[in-house]
Amino acid sequence: MSRSDANSLKIFAGRGMGALAGRICEHLDLPMGQATTEQFPDGELLVKLEEDVRGRDCYVVLSTCDPVNTNLMELLIYIDCLKRASANRITAVLPYFGYARQDRKDTGRTPITAKLVANIITTAGANRVLAMDLHAAQIQGFFDIPMDHLSAAPVFVQALSEMREEYGELVVCSPDVGNVKMANTYAQLLGGELAIIDKRRTSGSEVTLANLIGSVQDRAVLMMDDMIATGGTVCEAARLVKARGATHVIVAATHGVLVGLASQRLAEAPIDRVLITNTIPDDARLDPVRGKLSELCVSGLLGDAIHRIHHNQSVSALFRGRGAAKR
To answer: Percent of the chain beyond pLDDT 90?
Structure first.
C-alpha cells in the first residue's frame, strides 16, 4: 500500500485475533494498529488506543466466538473507543459472527438474537460490518448499516482442487437438505456430482440419517458446511457414506467451532481429512483431531476486502470467476 494508505488505514485486533489480523496486515503491507485490552479482576474490560486515529479509516478484527459474550462486549467497547477518538469510519470485521443460528423465531416466545446483536453493533457506532460465511444469509438484512458478506469458497476451491489427484473422482454430499444449495455450488465449482442425505430429527438432541440420494460408490466424498459445532451430524453422515461405498471422506467448514466432544468425534469417525479456516483462533479444542486437520488462511480474502472498502471499490468483484458459495 502507499504511504498515504498506511497513515489513513488502521487495523486493530481483538484479544486472540492477533495472528489473523497480523497476516491481514502483512498482506496489505501495513503495521498493526496499537491498542491494548485489559480485563479487571471483576471481569470488566478496558480498551485503550496507543496511537492517534482521528480522521482515519479503522477496522477491528474480532470473531464473536467462545467466550461469545466477552468477545462481543470487547468489540462494542473497541467501537466506542474508536468513535470517541474521532475515527472517520469504523468497520467491524467479524470473521465469525456469533449468535448467527438465532436468526428467526422457530418456536413461540423466543428471541431473534442475531438481529439484536446487529442492532447493538450499529448502536455502538460501527459504520460498516464485514463478515465471512454467515450461517444464514438473511442476517445481512439485519444490519441498518452497509454489511459485506464474504465467502471462503475461493480458499476451499483452491485447496480442494490440489487434492483431486490424490482422491480422484469427487462427490459433494450435503449432510442435510438445508445445505443443498451450498453443496450444489461446490459441486459446480469443483466439477463433481451431488449427493444428499435425508436427515430426520427424532428428538431435540438426536437425529437419524436414513436415506442417501445419489451414488458415492468408489468415489471420494466432500461434505461442506459453514460450520462444525458438535460434529454429530457430519460424523454420522461420514459413517453412512462409507457404508455406501465411499473411498474417502473429506469434511470442510469455514468455522471450526468444535464444541464439547466435537474434535474427539471427528478423530474417531471414518473421516480422512478435516479442513477449516482460521476465522476462530487456534486453541486446545483442536488437539484431538490435529492428525486429520488442515487449517486454511482467509487473511488474503479479508485483506483484499478491506483494501476495496478503504478505496470505495466493489467487494463483490473479488469473487468474479473465483466462485462464491451461496446458502
So the answer is: 84
- Cα–Cα distance between 115 and 200 in angstroms, integer? 28
Q: Alpha helix locations (H) across the chain?
A: 3-8, 18-28, 68-84, 113-124, 153-167, 180-190, 232-243, 262-268, 299-310
Q: What share of the chain is helix, strand, coil (3-state, %, to 5)?
A: 35, 25, 35
Comparing CA positions, the residue from 302, 231, 297 lying closest to residue 269 is 231
What pLDDT was estimated at residue 325?
59
Sequence-distant (≥ 6) Cβ neighbours of residue 40 within 8 angstroms: 46
Joined grid coordinates for residue 246: 465411499
- Can you tell me the mean pLDDT for 63-85? 98
* Eight-class DSSP state of 240: H
326 is catalytic: no
Cell triple for 251: 469434511
pLDDT confidence tier of residue 145, bands split at 50, 70 and 90: very high
Which of the 8 DSSP states describes residue 34?
P
Q: Which of 10, 48, 199, 242 is catalytic?
A: 199
Reference 266, options 220, 294, 234, 225; nearest CA is: 234
Mean of the pLDDT values across residues 160-185? Answer: 89
Q: DSSP letter string over 278-302?
A: TTS---GGGGGGTTTEEEE--HHHH
Q: Which three cell numbers stand for residue 290?
A: 490435529
pLDDT per residue over 112-130, tens digit each? Answer: 999 999 999 999 999 999 9
Nearest residue to 220 via CA among 172, 260, 279, 162: 172
pTM of the shown model: 0.93
